[in-house]
Amino acid sequence: MARPKRLLIDQQPHLINYQAINQRNAFSDNQDYQQYLHWLNKEALIHNCILHAYLLLPKQIYLVLEPSCGEDISKLMQALGRRYVRYLNLKEKLSGTLWKDRFKASPLQSDFWLKNTLHYLVYKPVTEGLCETPKDYPWSSYRKYVFQQLSYLQDLKLPPNPSIRSQLEVAISRNLPLP
């Protein structure tokens, strides 16, 4: 039986989520995070997807991507997955897949869902115990939007989207993570 087709909507932001298999770390050092972001940036440009936000956790990845054509997300994630898994397997002298399942994609069809998703992504590292405040976590797009800086990867092209920035500022102004 064929897998059900994902609902991917043209020119609509989507929350993308990947989880590593068997609690394996998807990232073991700064070089891994930087390499993933570098390839993510490249593939987003190639596949006509706007990267609105990202959060890279040791065992999970969250992206907010907006494709010009819905299927571009699948093409981007497939190309990125091939590159990164090959890189990590060579580095760690392993073989096989890194990801638990295929990626999950959820269209964010209103500003309400976009704002709440961004709020969730901003506070996820805090709730996971990885940092004290969102600005302390280096592997999210929070710093780029709110402070206009990205210390680890200078060439990442996030769109200068005032709407996304204001959504993040609203999320942060709540000052507490969502339950």
Automatic annotation (TrEMBL):
Limits of the Transposase IS200-like domain: 13-124
The protein's name: Transposase IS200-like domain-containing protein
Gene source species: Marinospirillum insulare
Superkingdom, taxonomy of origin: Bacteria
